[in-house]
Request: fold
Amino acid sequence: MTSRRIARVVVGLLLTVPFLSSCRASSSDYRREAEKYLESDDLAKEAGYKFDQAVCEKPESDMIGVQFSCTATDNDGDDWEFIVEITGSRAITVISGEVIG
Reply:
């Protein structure tokens, strides 16, 4: 059952999430936006799971192509790890997600 859940979420996560910022986004902005997106209703609809307690590491820089990891807990109590990539001046893409515990 777990492998089916992983496949469903990974397929659904390969999308870009733009966010608003009045100036150039900092690495802290990318971290906050990723946490907010992982807990969003939009992702819940796409993935079929509601996530909360999202925590992301601060990206090493704010450059396009930098990846960083996040964790969150789904509505079944399973912990997930997500890999997020900065894909634009104010955009992130969730590259993958898998159950880690």
Remarks:
- The two ends are 14 Å apart (CA to CA).
- Residues 2-99 form one domain.
